[in-house]
Structure formats: structure tokens, C-alpha cells
Predict the structure.
Amino acid sequence: MKIGIAADHGGYELKESLKAFLQEKGYSIKDFGAFTLDNQDDYPDFVIPLAQAIVAGEVERGIAVCGSGVGASVAANKVQGVRAALINDHFSAHQGVEDDNLNLLCLGGRVTGNMAAQELVAAFLDAKFTGAERHVRRLGKVKALEKNS
């Protein structure tokens, strides 16, 4: 599975740690930056290209990290076809994929420790969308909103 990863200065250290973790697990990683720690950078500059790559099929899933994870989630969800969520617990990490076909996990670099982040990422990447009728129906309603906005 090819995974995209992106972070601003608030998530840079966690991104680098997760990148190494994922490479050790055998995942192919596409890094969208930041490539250096720059306290003046802006999360949309990294998160939006990641979100666009998900929609284009360049990566299967993405991980975006900013200071809290909130900004990354807000920005990513502006890209039609992206289903991003700030995740802070194991259940939501896998349930978001299983029920809602989550394709971009957002984390807070200033609030999520390395080990917790690894657990959340593993749950997210191991999960599969169930395709249950009720979930497909609900996602259809979400997609209709995207078309009307």
C-alpha cells in the first residue's frame, strides 16, 4: 500500500517518526513535506497536495499532521473525494475506515505521542471498508453534498 504523509511545523517531528515506522513496516511512502522544520510554514501547503494525491489515486491513504490535527482535517476535507478525520482513539481509527471509508487520518503533533500515533496509524491502515449497504447509502448522501456545494 502506498501511503502519503504530510505535516507542517507543528507535526514535523511526528511525521518524521511515523515515516520511519511505516517504512520499517514495508509501506511505500510519498512525503508531501514539510521537508525541514520551519515555524513559518502553513499546513494547507502540504495537506492539500496530499489530499489531491489521494483523489487522483497516487496514494491509497494519507496521514496529515499539524499541531492539533484540526487544521489539517479542515483543509483536507475541502478537497472533493477526501474523507479526513482527526483521530485520537483506536476505535475511531479503524471504524472510520470500516464504516465511513476514511482515506486521510489527521493527527496532532503537539498532542499525540509517538507510540499512540503508531497504534492509531496501524489501526487505520489495517482497516478495510465493509461496503455494507447502510454505509454506502450514507456515503452517497455525503457525495451528493459535495456535488451541490
